Amino acid sequence: MIEIGSTYTLEVVKETEFGVYLDAGNLGEILLPNKHTPPDLEPGDTVEVFLYLDSEERPIATTQTPKAEVGEFAYLMVKDCTPVGAFLDWGLDKDVLVPFAEQHRPMVVGKSYIVFLYLDNQNRITATSKIDKIVEEDDQHDFRPQQAVDLIIANSTELGFKAIVDQSHWGLLYKDEVDQRLSFGQSIRGYIKHIREDGKIDLSLKSGQQIRDSYSQVIQDYLQDHNGFAPVHDKSPPEQIAELLGMSKGQFKKAIGGLFKQRVITIESDGIRLV
Questions:
Q1: Which of 2, 42, 72, 134 has fewest C-beta within 10 Å?
Q2: Are 208 and 239 in contact (CB under 8 A)?
Q3: Per-residue confidence at 188, pLDDT binned at 50, 70, 90?
Q4: Interval 204-258: pLDDT, tens
């Protein structure tokens, strides 16, 4: 079923002086105005369009690309505040409305906010900044460790940064594992680091392989700076490993295991040695 607020590839059924009409299935024929019609588009051709309602609340098509579609989060700037609410720039000629009742706090022109787009009871595309009621924080998901995901940085806590994971769930990036500047509303690629017993999601900005590679490099750098030897091995106390190399024993064991298989190091009774 074709719905307002999404992108579709539709067939041109006829031309008029105002533009071309597209076959939108259950929504009937929808106008693509001349200003958004690609040149030489003829009946029988197909075109990718986004569907929304015009100022008279009639379905209309555009080849403009919105910054978000219905069912998605986005970081959008307020262009105007009116008696009915705030209007946000989302990439189309017609701005999207955030009614006063859907504002987490009063919005200010020129500032940007994370919002979620939905259809109201009159099928109009509307936005809300009350994202806590939208983002899921339960264990009903099928994310898996090392899975690549899209993140939107949405908040900061004492532990780190809360992020919206793949437009659906909350996840946490621990601040001591983030080595770059993150800003509110930023979209960034990340990875599922760990799924806790309660289903909550721990995140990382590096894949498992990237993390292992970085620990391996730390070990190699230490060896090169200390005559090719480090007085720790897989039986060393975790505290000694952490003090010497700044990593957990588990991270150390995985890293030296990889280096040993690559014949970069040897593991001896009193430590590890660069080959």
A1: 42
A2: no
A3: very high
A4: 987 767 777 778 888 899 899 999 999 998 889 989 998 888 888 888 888 888 8
Are 119 and 4 in contact by the 8 Å Cβ rule? The answer is yes
Cα 47 from Cα 67, distance rounded (Å): 19
| C-beta separation of 192 from 146 below 8 A | yes
* Residue 269: φ, ψ to 5°: -65, -25
For residue 218 the two structure tokens come to 């730390």
* Mean pLDDT within 138-142: 81
Q: How many angstroms separate the CA atoms of 213 and 30, rounded?
A: 53
Q: pTM to 2 decimals?
A: 0.77
Helical residues (DSSP H) of 2-68, grouped into ranges: none
Task: Please report the domains of the chain, with CATH numbers, ordered by start residue.
Answer: 7-62 (2.40.50.140), 73-132 (2.40.50.140), 148-206 (2.40.50.140), 209-274 (1.10.10.10)
* Distance of alpha carbon 147 from alpha carbon 92, whole angstroms: 33
Provide the residue count of the chain.
Answer: 275
C-alpha 187/C-alpha 152 separation (Å) is: 5
| Angle formed at CA 59 by CA 57 and CA 78, multiple of 5 degrees | 60
Span between the terminal Cα atoms of the chain, in Å: 64
| Maximum distance among all Cα pairs of the chain, rounded to whole angstroms | 85
Tell me the Cα Rg of the chain: 26
Question: Could you give the CA distance from residue 109 to residue 151 in angstroms, rounded to a whole number?
Answer: 26
Distance CA 29, CA 21 (A): 6
Q: How many whole angstroms separate alpha carbon 132 and alpha carbon 136? A: 8
**Rounded distance between C-alpha atoms, residue 135 and residue 138, angstroms:** 9
Give CA–CA dist 74/26, Å, rounded. Answer: 28
